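User: Hi! I have a protein structure encoded as tokens and I'd like to know what sequence might fold into it. I'm fairly new to this, so please keep things simple.
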């Protein structure tokens, strides 16, 4: 286990940083709600649109909610929108890959979209905390 993961584990177990995690959950929840709302709107307004198109559009809208929420509320660090865009882009690729695999070999519809959404959330937190928002304080 890397030292950063050990530090995170220690903080969680000792109660340190719990408020940051709760803020991440709140912002992530809002971004996920945005993502899910856009997903449902597209899914039901435009039936037959491929799941990967739906997930890409929804992810793009939720990007802005997520970046600004994490910048000003979760981490209170300026962060790099370009790094966050790179992170989000790579998570979009991973998410679409997961959706594609599940749709191709397992199930269709909303479940693969929601499962992939949950998995990339965990990865996004770790990379955001220790990479994107590990820089200077945000200016308010």
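Assistant: Happy to help. Inverse folding works backwards from shape to sequence: for each of the 140 positions I chose a residue that suits the local structure. Here it is:
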């Amino acid at each position: 286990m890397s030292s950063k993961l050990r530090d995170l584990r220690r903080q969680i177990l000792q109660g340190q940083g719990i408020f940051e995690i709760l803020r991440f959950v709140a912002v992530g929840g809002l971004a996920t709600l945005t993502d899910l709302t856009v997903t449902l709107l597209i899914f039901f307004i435009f039936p037959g649109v491929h799941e990967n198109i739906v997930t890409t559009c929804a992810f793009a809208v939720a990007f802005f909610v997520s970046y600004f929420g994490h910048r000003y509320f979760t981490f209170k660090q300026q962060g790099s929108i370009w790094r966050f865009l790179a992170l989000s882009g790579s998570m979009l690729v991973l998410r679409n890959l997961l959706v594609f695999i599940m749709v191709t070999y397992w199930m269709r519809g909303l479940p693969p979209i929601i499962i992939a959404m949950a998995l990339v959330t965990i990865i996004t937190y770790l990379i955001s905390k220790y990479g994107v928002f590990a820089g200077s304080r945000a200016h308010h």
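A useful reference point when you look it over: Helices lie at 3-14, 18-45, 51-74, 81-105, 110-132. Feel free to ask if any position seems puzzling.
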